[in-house]
Amino acid sequence: MSGDVGVGGGGGEGGGEGGVVEARLAELGLTLPAVVPPLAAYQPAVRSGVYVYTSGQLPMVDGKLPVTGKVGAEVTAEEAKALARTCALNALAAVKSVAGDLDRVARVVKVVGFVASAADFTGQPGVINGASELLGEVFGEAGVHARSAVGVAVLPLDAPVEVEVQVELVGV
Distance from first CA to last CA of the chain, Å, rounded? Predict the structure, then answer.
C-alpha cells in the first residue's frame, strides 16, 4: 500500500461502498462504524466547498462510551489514547457521510483534540496522538495535519476525549 492513500481521489462518485481507504482500514483490522447520532442541535459533519468539518466526535462504540472520567484520574493516558483513535474512526464515518467516499479525501488538514483532564495531567498531546497516528496509518502522507490538543475540565457525557477533524476533498 502506497503512502498516498486518498491523494488524488480515485474513489467512486459517492457510491459509498468503500474503496482504497476502507480497504486500508480493513488491513488495520478496523471497520468504519455507523455515524454517531448528534447529542444536540448540530450535524456530525458539514461540507463547505472542498472541505469537510466534523463536529467533535466522542469515542462512542455501539452507541455508548466504553469508559468515562478524567484522564490522569479514572482513565489512564494509554486508555485515552486508544479512545482518541476511536474518535478519529468515528470522524472518518462522519466525513464519509457527507463526502460519499473516503477516497475523495485529498488530505487531512487539521485535528483538534479535547482531553478531560485531572488537574495535574499534562499529557494531552500524547493522548491525541491516538487520533493522529490512526489518520497517518490510513492516509499516509495525506494524513499529516496541523493539530491542537487541549485539556478541559469536562466533556459531554463525561467522555475522556473528543476529536474533531477537517479534511480537504478532491474531485469537488
Answer: 25
